[in-house]
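Dear colleague,

Thank you for sharing your sequence with our group. We've completed the structure prediction you requested, and as agreed, I am returning the results in plain text so they can be pasted directly into your records. Please verify that the sequence below matches your submission; if there's any discrepancy, let me know and we will rerun it promptly.
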Amino acid sequence: MKKRTVTIVVGIFTALIIFFIAKVNKGASAETEVLTQVKVGEFRSEVTASGELYAKNSVNILGPDGMRQANIWETTISDIIDEGTVVEKGDYVARLDQSELGQRIQQASSDFTISSSQYKEAKLDTAMELRKARDEMDNMRFEMKKQELVLENSQYEPPATIKEKQMELDRANKRLLQAQENYKLQLEKAKAKVEASEAEMLEDKRRLDFLQEISSQFVITAPEAGMLIYRRDWRGNKIAQGGRVASYDPIVATLPDLTNMISKTYINEVDINTVSSGQIVELGLDAFPDKRLTGTVTSVANMGQQRPNSDSKVFEVVVEINESDTTLRPGMSTSNKIVARVVPNAMFIPVEAVHSQGDSITYVIVKDGLGIVKQEVELGISNSDQVIIKAGLNEGQNVYLSDPSGMEDKALNRLAGKQSLAQNKQ
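Please find the predicted structure tokens below.
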């Protein structure tokens, strides 16, 4: 009786151990089985990238348009109002550094002073020279009249004397004619000298007036009403106080048209082939997470570029936003989801469920009742989360998202067409 009791107790204990081990194994198996169903429905191939808002149209606030004529190639923004300030037409916006212009004005003023003195001096010199020449001609006319009287009074003199007096009169007349010719030349020379001096003075005056007029343009005002936005350089940095303004591109800031906005985004070279003009875009705003906008791709850059802090090449894509929203501001960050392609009735699974064997074989692990099948599949297009299955699975089948243990040596169930091809190659 005692022996029978011990046997029963040992049997019950053994059964409990077996039940516990089975329960643990079943729980562990259930914990490691992460499955998903093969679905059929609308499949969207999407490209996601962050972007930044810009105004499609804007009015540029320009610095002086005559900086180049003033031989000023660059200047510094010494003061500018805060970005985002709403201004009216004619309101103060910025002030540019005038130190170099001041030197130009000082030099032009000095040049004008010198040329003015030279002009006055030229007029005085020529007046004195011409007066002297006229005095000499008056003396010659007097001498000639004197010789005429001498000749007239010598009519009773011997012929030789009369002839001598006639020759002296002729010489006096000749000297007068020469003096008159010289005076004409001297007069033309004096006019040319005064005109040249006057032209130089007027040119110096014109340049001084021009520089003084440019000086007033170094205080920048708003050409239209709007919200001031700082300009960005080629690196994307904002040009604020202390920034440089070039004569060949004198934009100080902009006044954007907030009713028509675009989002500029940059797509990497791997995804750019799937993006084209006309595609629909879904946008979100980092500043307003609950706000959703729509847009359309309007342009895709043909050439890639290297962005700061990035090793890969990217292509600029411009998205025009359909909605007009008063909360949109240039510089806001956007999340852009470009719908590259839509397939209405597609069969798809998560990309995590797809595995590869070698270079050309892709497969999934299917739960088939109580068994597991290693099934080859033919893939279609994919997005960041899902991939289309063109062959190898049926809707509603369960596939593993992670590999169950012991699948390395399990035979692969090939697709019919590909299996025949493989056999023909052998």
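Summary note from our side: Residues 21-31, 420-426 have pLDDT under 50 and may be disordered.

Kind regards,
the structure core
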